[in-house]
Amino acid sequence: MKKLIFILCIGLFSISSTAQNDLPNIDLTSIDGKTVALEDVTNKDGITIISLWATWCVPCLKELDAISDIYDEWQDETNVKLLAISVDDSRTVKRVKSMVNGKDWDYTVLLDKNSDLKRALNASSIPLTILVKDGKIVYEHSGYSPGAELELYEKIKELSK
Fold it and tell me: Model's pTM, two decimal places?
């Protein structure tokens, strides 16, 4: 039992550890087909949430929906900006624009069609949520469970001070 608890603690630490790595400057594509440099769309005056997601990833959609419900409040209080970056491949990327329009998310949605950003971040699974401040990755979390968005918000408030 002690070994199990130790392993869980190590796993939780590695999932939510503070990274302090530079955010890679990768060119992505907007859902309108324009090329965008990642550093040009991050929040220069505060925290940027980067959420790697895909149309086929149910936990990803649940996380982005949960954040959407309270995103306006987050922006008012902390000036946070969310970039929802789809890692859909060539077979499923066609679904992104219609899904985003149907969801009515108030996020900047970008496409990582070749998984360049995903590889640069060494992301082995999605959803992957990253907080960026001053061009540095200051927090990472992989996976989603209900209520995780509230923990994320607490971290955002802490970093916004």
Answer: 0.84
Residue 131 pairs with which residues in a beta bridge? 49, 139
3-state percent helix, strand, coil for the chain, nearest multiple of 5: 40, 25, 35
pLDDT tens-digit series, residues 130-143: 999 999 999 999 99
Residue 14 phi/psi, 5-degree rounding, is -70, -30
- Where are the domains positioned within the chain? 19-160
Return the CATH fold of 19-160.
Glutaredoxin (3.40.30)
Residue among 88, 104, 101, 106 nearest 28 (CA):
88
